[in-house]
Amino acid sequence: MDLLGYGAFFLTTALIFSLVTLGLNLQWGLTGLFNVGLAGFVAIGAYTSALLTTPDDAARLGGFGLPILVGWLGAMVVGGIAAALTGMATLRLRSDYLAITTFGVAVVVQLVALNAQKLTGGPFGIGFIPRPFGGLAETPLLFNLSNLAVVSVVTLVAYLALEHLSRSPWGRVLKALREDERAAISLGKSARFYRVQAFAVGGAIMALAGALQAHFTGFIAPDNYLPILTFQVWVMLIVGGSGSNLGAVIGSILVWAIWAGSGTLTSILFPPEQQARAAALQIAAIGVMLCVILLIRPNGLFGDRPRRPRFSKRAKIAAGESSSGS
Amino acid sequence: MSLQFVVDGLLTGSMIGLGAIGVTLTYSILRFSNFAHGDFMAWGTYATLAVVSAIGATFGKVAPIAPLSFGWPLIVALVVGMAFTALLALLLDKVLFARLRSQGQAIIVVMASFGASMALRSLLEFTFTSRPTYFSRAIQIAMPVGFGIRITPDQIALLLLTAVLVLGVHLLMTRTQTGRSMQALSQNAALARIVGIDVASVVRVTWVIGGALACVAGVMIGILVQIRPFMGFDMLLPMFAAAILGGIGSIPGAVLGGLIIGLAEAGAVQLIGAEWRAAVSFIILMAVLFVRPIGLFGVRER
């Protein structure tokens, strides 16, 4: 029974990660936009939803006590707007500028979370975030399973929507921009406009994931949104294979399993006073893993980014034509 | 407000500027923003610290040079640390960046540098723990120099060192064949190859300069503030902002950008409070990207 409960807990966390990874896949995998500040967007979502749904608190702004769904919607709206602004500032420039700016966004969000006590509760964070099925907390198993159900449904909906989007004309424009910007522009597509849209939608999905996580744990603090989160999600996407939504989900579950597993292992193997060092070693190992994957298998498990674009694209087109013709 | 912020700002600006030289060179010659640059700083500082301790263990306690808080061991160690950091940068390029660069996707290299940065920093944390350390625990008396400004001998020495290094790099870039090759490569890589510039050696020089200066900047932080595994990572945003503010590829620009950001940070600390310091470089960065994305001394992208 305990194992089942833990399994449900594990999968819930992994699926929330995979939601972030799906958002990143829309930005990077489909559109080629490099976001190294995604922890910031996740944090924006978590804090927005927490502010909207928590009961009134005299120590800080709000606590508006709104329904959880409103919190989630609000998180997506604010996250989307933040991402759109970031995109508008940088997407007419070289891709590196977006990377640097998103990095800065994460730093500033972290600062606001830490220092704007009136808004975010400062280093102690926000507690008493309403949890869906909070009434079931007496029976942990049921509580975990119902959480898992909610998160699964949200992830599934996001997954299907993204699959649909990437096949839609909109998604094809994004892919075209990624593969050959000049050709796409010459067909009359505004590169910047489409990229800002993709970046905003991706940011909204990340914010939603942050909100889900906040309502799942019931408590958030600035420490949840350190650069390490960004890093984890990147590894998940690269392992799964950028460009593939399925890869994003499976990569997230796989990497989270490795992460949680090695965390448990180090907590068994190392004495308590060495835990922090062991955790550092764990991060170093994952960092090396990311570099190795980039070197030897840049497509990850399910990636669709062809190494020889022309050749395989032609092959794909040929295959597509023959299948649609039959 | 007291004018003390000018000295603080110039010092912070020197650290940022020295780091930003490496960032701007990597960006203009190798064409990627190196997220591991901050960690070169931290590695160089810890290497210098290790050499200082080794010298201390061999020669016993060495008296500091008159008004300064450090003696010759630190100077020797700094040179060793600079060499070490340059080698580290070269090694990382050989193992990782060069291979990815040859695949031709610039942004993959950026991502790899992000992964490398995590790995490097965590290795430091593993080896030295995250507890801050210091080169010296001696407290220096700051001398008043008028206008309500106080400055310590260490600070004067480090400002002078920065000026010498910046001048040196500037002369190297403008007066030597190597420097001109570097400029040529950053302006037009294809043409530079055609006229027979040895690209591999230019790349090596770029890493050596960037790594060595990162080490100096790190040691400055170590002397004036403290040594932590995250010290370089926290400098990353100011360094990027300085490089972009100054104009990518411009060394005077990077230094001037660093000084502007340093002064702005020090001013903000006095006016608003130290906790918002890190937001200053972001605001400047955004302003530059909106108003003049090529920076102060930048040239338009080809």
From TrEMBL, chain A:
Any one annotated GO CC term: plasma membrane
Source organism of this protein record: Rhizobium loti (Mesorhizobium loti)
Residue ranges the record marks as coiled coil: none
InterPro entries: ABC_transp_permease, LivM-like
Highest taxon above the source species: Bacteria
Transmembrane domains' residue ranges: 6-26, 33-52, 64-85, 97-116, 141-162, 198-221, 233-259, 279-296
UniProt keyword list: Cell membrane, Membrane, Transmembrane, Transmembrane helix
PANTHER family linked to this entry: HIGH-AFFINITY BRANCHED-CHAIN AMINO ACID TRANSPORT PROTEIN BRAE, HIGH-AFFINITY BRANCHED-CHAIN AMINO ACID TRANSPORT SYSTEM PERMEASE
GO molecular function: branched-chain amino acid transmembrane transporter activity
UniProt subcellular location: Cell membrane
Membrane topology: Multi-pass membrane protein
Protein name (Swiss-Prot/TrEMBL): Amino acid/amide ABC transporter membrane protein 2 (HAAT family)
